[in-house]
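Long-time lurker. I teach an intro course on protein structure, and each term I like to show students one example going from raw sequence to a predicted 3D structure in token notation. This year I'd like something fresh instead of my usual example. Would anyone be willing to generate the tokens for the chain below so I can use it in lecture? Attribution to the forum is fine with me.
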Amino acid sequence: MNDDPLQDTLVDVANMCIRNKWHRTDTKYGGYHHFSQAEMEHINDRSGCEFDSGYCFLDETGGSEGMIRLYYGESNPKWSFWIEDGQMRVDLAVDVHSAKQMLAQIREFGKTPAWTGCRRWNSIGIS
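-- Reply from a regular --
Happy to contribute to a lecture. Here you go:
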């Protein structure tokens, strides 16, 4: 556990995805595990965020790498997860288009939501 409730929540979700084997070909909904209302309430309560909905999946059956996507208004941040040196790693996985869209929303509303991971955008050259 660290001092970032969202990061801790994402690690929990990644571990649930692995434990429950929610892989791309395992569901009738395009291979994604769509979060139930109860799961979304848990994610929002634990993280302190107000996501609308989301889903997760493993890249391969029985694997330990995958993706988490959570929707917030018109934004849909994504996080990749994997195990490295025995530790669960979760990091923002943003394509340039999504990052620019989120930045435009941030500029429009004049603040940076905690979940955006903006501190990482400078490393991929988005301003």
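Some talking points for your students: The chain has three helices and five strands. Helices lie at 5-19, 37-47, 96-109.
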